[in-house]
């Protein structure tokens, strides 16, 4: 049974203040972060860690992202209520749960079968209904394209062209690109059939994006 007590909510408010002090300004993103009980994605023994602004191991060589990073990427996406969003790398399901506070139209794909099933159980327990898929996220979901927004939650060696082709006109792709040590956060906006703008933001360190268009 999932319990979200006054104590948990107080810890979450404190976490949101920390994220806000680090520069996140979008009130909808901050509200989304406050609405999602991050401790639901942790074992009970790790409650204190759930509300620290840090990444944390979730098994299978993966992590639950740092709340600031989740907020940073979400803010760059600039999600509207009717946007159709694709998330590459479901992981724990935490980032997806935040996206679902902003739009119900979230598609998420996970490469690792163990994490895929674990995240699906978590969504069910929380009463959330994203469209979940098991497969190679670096290839996107061409059968469900186009998407208004695409978010990649793992570090890519290149910008996958398959993902660019799955954006709507005016659509945005937020993706960390670099080597396995650190990546630069990029936002790509599709202006035309073969016309894109590219913006560069801060440096981050993500787990590697695995797949045909990622790290082999």
Automatic annotation (TrEMBL):
PANTHER family named in the record: PROTEIN-L-ISOASPARTATE O-METHYLTRANSFERASE, PROTEIN-L-ISOASPARTATE(D-ASPARTATE) O-METHYLTRANSFERASE
Source superkingdom: Bacteria
Classification via Pfam families: PCMT
Organism from which the protein derives: Rufibacter hautae
GO biological process, one term: methylation
GO MF entries: protein-L-isoaspartate (D-aspartate) O-methyltransferase activity
Annotated Gene Ontology cellular component terms: cytoplasm
UniProt keyword terms in alphabetical order: Cytoplasm, Methyltransferase, S-adenosyl-L-methionine, Transferase
Localization annotation: Cytoplasm
Function text: Catalyzes the methyl esterification of L-isoaspartyl residues in peptides and proteins that result from spontaneous decomposition of normal L-aspartyl and L-asparaginyl residues. It plays a role in the repair and/or degradation of damaged proteins.
HAMAP family on file: PIMT
Location of the active site: 65
Reaction(s) catalysed (UniProt annotation): [protein]-L-isoaspartate + S-adenosyl-L-methionine = [protein]-L-isoaspartate alpha-methyl ester + S-adenosyl-L-homocysteine
Name the UniProt record assigns to this protein: Protein-L-isoaspartate O-methyltransferase
Predominant place of localization: cytoplasm
């Amino acid at each position: 049974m999932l319990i979200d007590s006054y104590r948990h909510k107080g810890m979450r408010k404190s976490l949101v203040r920390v994220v806000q002090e680090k520069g996140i300004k979008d009130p909808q993103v901050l509200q989304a972060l406050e609405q999602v009980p991050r401790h639901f994605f942790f074992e009970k023994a790790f409650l204190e860690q759930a509300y620290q602004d840090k990444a944390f191991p979730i098994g299978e060589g993966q992590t639950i992202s740092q709340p600031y990073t989740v907020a940073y990427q979400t803010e760059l996406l600039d999600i509207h209520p009717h946007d159709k969003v694709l998330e590459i790398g479901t992981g724990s399901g935490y980032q997806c749960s935040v996206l679902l506070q902003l739009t119900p139209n979230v598609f998420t794909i996970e490469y690792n079968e163990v994490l895929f099933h674990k995240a699906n159980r978590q969504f069910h327990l929380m009463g959330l209904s994203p469209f979940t898929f098991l497969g190679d996220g670096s290839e996107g979901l061409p059968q469900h394209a186009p998407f208004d927004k695409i978010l990649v939650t793992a570090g890519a060696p290149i910008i996958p062209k398959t993902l660019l082709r799955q954006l709507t006109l005016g659509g945005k792709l937020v993706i960390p690109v670099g080597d396995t040590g650190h990546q630069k956060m990029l936002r790509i906006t599709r202006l035309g059939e073969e016309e894109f703008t590219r913006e560069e933001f801060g440096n981050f360190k993500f787990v590697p994006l695995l797949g045909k268009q990622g790290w082999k």
